[in-house]
Design brief:
The protein is α+β, with helices and mostly antiparallel strands. The protein folds into three domains: 57 residues, no CATH class; 90 residues, Penicillin-binding protein 2a (Domain 2) (Alpha-Beta Complex); 353 residues, Beta-lactamase, CATH 3.40.710. Helix content is 36%, strand content 16%. It has 21 helices and 18 strands. It has a five-stranded antiparallel sheet with strand order 7-6-16-15-14, with helices on both faces. Helix 8 runs antiparallel to helix 20 and helix 12 packs antiparallel against helix 18. The longest helix has 22 residues. The N and C termini lie far apart (67 Å).
């Protein structure tokens, strides 16, 4: 054992512990993985001095794009002793449904690797050999052929994913350089007409190749102690106050229930007349109709919508749009979010409900929490005319020979109980958000694409506000929905909207605008003062 440890350049105790852990078994024990060629050569040269030691070639999972889509793809790792014991017990009881697993088996640990482990893994082959007293093979007496794993095909657009990843990390770096915490981000792009996921980014991420090769203690500690949670897929598990994108639901409910007409003018004096609740920076925007209120993201207007609707109707329409429940995407640990209601407050805090909390709920604050994938579904419903599709990320499973085994497609979950007339009014307001005078007008200035969207700056009790931007395009015939959230990113238009634009440019193959020279030098366009002020209303 000392000689083998010297060849592998590992402590003798490391090998001894692995042997002790498998003591009494008849299956081969993996003592080392990813062994370099020079070490293999030395072991083979001294094989006669190492009875019972063999060198096998085994497949190694390789992720060519390193950290890209890491939480979505997941990672793999060797089966543990505890897992092996459970599998063996299940086999004895006839309840094992995960396929045969032996010592050294590599399993999916998270993401799609875990969700589709039994599909991807296949079945290991093996040999039965007769050995002499020294443990050297003498004769092969039986062989079990390997059954290759099957292949899964994703709905992800690789080029779009690359652009989304770059947009996220570039923007996080920019925000941090400005002193904004920008701790992480979540971005998802959907086809609103099918539910197919076109891109999914959760930042920060990790490199799954570290696990495939055998992660070091230093690497594990680096990931496990990261306060920004690189293992978490924030798109499906992260729950955040929706902020102003929730005004889409409040507005649709108020119009549908005839609590307001699209042309009714409501005066914003800077605060609501019943309760001293104001716009984010105390702005007073004067007389507003529905379209202008949505485009400007006016809090006072939507406080009044909350006053007219009541919390029961706000809660009802949030459920109609699919909030408060999982979207059904086939990924682990999806969050369901939470809906603000008197019942929730009484159950959790044993306190009464106040009108001011209804106002907060109307603008996506209070106790309301959503996941980015939920908001993508909401925007898809608006974009496609009211159909709720289940998001999906796997389009096909193929057999090892390449023939299709199972094909996945759109799955309709329901139809919105909102009239076409109301949907059209809401869509018009969302279109104006990205035009001059809207809260995202400066971000989308000069873009040769009609985009509908909604900015959001969601209050965060533990730090800087979260920034949201939810969008679809083209406005008249939607083909893509993009939702971006920047944790502690500040104003949604500037933090999250700046991520969405390059994603849309890539999807529609729109050339990036040439930046005009400033004082004879190329520079970045500056956001106008009026635009900054409009964002602060959000």
């Amino acid at each position: 054992l000392e000689q083998l440890a010297a060849y592998l350049q590992v402590p003798v105790k490391t090998l001894a512990d692995k042997i002790e852990a498998h003591k009494g078994g008849y299956e081969p024990i993996r003592l080392a993985s990813d062994v370099t060629l020079d070490k293999v050569t030395k072991i083979e040269e001294h094989r006669h001095e190492l009875p019972g030691i063999t060198v096998d070639v085994e497949p190694l999972r390789y992720y060519p794009h390193d950290t890209m889509a890491s939480q979505l793809l997941g990672y793999v790792g060797e089966v543990s002793e505890e897992e092996l014991a459970k599998v063996k017990q299940a086999e004895l009881e006839g309840t094992n449904s995960g396929g045969p697993i032996g010592a050294g088996t590599i399993l999916g640990r998270s993401g799609l690797e875990k969700m589709y482990d039994s599909v991807l893994r296949g079945v290991d082959g093996g040999r039965q050999v007769e050995v002499d007293a020294s443990g050297r093979p003498v004769e092969e007496v039986g062989r079990k052929h390997t059954v290759p794993g099957r292949n899964i095909h994703l709905t992800i657009d690789l080029n779009l994913q690359k652009v989304a990843e770059k947009a996220v990390y570039d923007q996080l770096a920019t925000l941090r350089s400005q002193g904004i915490p920008a701790k992480g981000a979540a971005v998802v792009a959907l086809d609103p007409n099918t539910g197919a996921v076109l891109a999914m980014v959760s930042a920060p991420g990790f490199n799954p190749n570290w696990f495939a090769k055998g992660i070091t203690t230093e690497q594990w500690n680096q990931l496990n102690t990261d306060a920004n949670h690189p293992f978490e897929n924030k798109v499906v598990t992260g729950e955040y106050p929706p902020g102003s994108p929730f005004k889409i639901i409040t507005g649709a409910a108020a119009l549908e229930l005839k609590k307001v007409t699209p042309n009714e003018m409501i005066y914003d004096s800077g605060k609501h007349w019943l309760i001293d609740k104001r716009n984010a920076e105390g702005e007073a925007l004067g007389w507003l109709d529905f379209n202008k209120a949505l485009a400007k993201s006016d809090n006072v207007y939507f406080y009044e919508m909350g006053n007219r609707l009541g919390i029961e109707n706000i809660d009802k329409y949030a459920k109609i749009f699919g909030l408060g429940e999982k979207t059904g995407i086939k990924l682990y640990d999806e969050g369901r979010g939470n809906l603000a209601s008197p019942e929730y407050k009484r159950k959790v805090f044993n306190q009464d409900w106040y009108l001011g909390e209804t106002f907060d709920a109307a603008i996506g604050q209070s106790f309301t929490l959503v996941t980015p994938i939920q908001m993508a579904v909401v925007m898809s419903e608006i974009a496609n005319g009211g159909i709720r599709y289940q998001p999906y990320v796997v389009s096909r499973i193929d057999n090892a020979d390449g023939t299709p085994e199972e094909i996945f497609g759109p799955k309709k979950l329901g139809v919105l109980q909102v009239s076409k007339a109301v949907m059209d009014i809401v869509r018009n307001g969302l279109r104006d958000v990205t035009l001059e005078g809207g809260t995202a007008g400066e971000i989308f200035k000069g873009l040769s694409l009609a985009v509908a969207g909604k900015t959001g700056t969601a209050e965060n009790a533990t730090g800087t506000d979260h920034g949201w931007f939810v969008a679809y395009a083209p406005y008249d015939k939607p083909r893509i929905v993009v939702v971006a959230l920047v944790e502690q990113g500040g104003f949604g238009a500037s933090s999250a909207g700046s991520i969405v634009r390059p994603i849309l440019e890539e999807y529609f193959h729109i050339p990036k605008p040439v930046v005009a020279p400033v004082n004879g030098k190329k520079g970045d366009p500056k956001m106008g003062t009026s635009s900054i002020k409009e964002q602060k209303v959000d």
